[in-house]
Amino acid sequence: METHPDIIAMRDRHEMAERATSTPRGQAIEALALITGVYLAASPWIAGFNGLSTLAVNNLIVGVVYALLMSGGFGRAYERTHSMAWAACALGLWTIIAPWAVAGDVSTTRTIVNNVIVGILCLLLGLAASAAAQQRGTPRSGHGMMKR
Length: 148
Hints:
Layout: H1 5-22, H2 24-47, H3 53-71, H4 78-101, H5 109-137
C-alpha cells in the first residue's frame, strides 16, 4: 500500500506544501498578509474615514477576506495556493479602485491614499505568494510525475 502511486503523489504534494510554508519567505508572506488584511479591515477607523459607511464596510469585508485567504491557507492545500494568491491580487486591485467604485462620493484624499497604498501591498503580497507557489510547484526530476 505504501508504494501505491496515489499515496506517493499525495505524500509528494504534502512535502511540497511543507517546504513552501516552512521557508522564511513563505512565513514572511503569511505574516505580512495577515497584518495587511487586519489593517485594511480596521483602516476606516485608523485613518479616520469611518463616516463614509460604504467604503468602511467595503474595507472591513475585503480586509477580513484577504487576511483569511492569504494567511489561513497558504500551503495547507498546496494545489489551491496558486489560485488563492491570484484571488488575493484581485482583492488588491479592487482595494485600489474601491474609493471610486463604491456607491456615493467617497474619494477623499485619506481614502485614496489609504486604499492605494494598502491595495498595492495586497497586490505585491499576492504576487509574491503566487511566485512562491509556482516556484515550489515545479516537479523535481523523477518525483511528482507519475505515468498511469
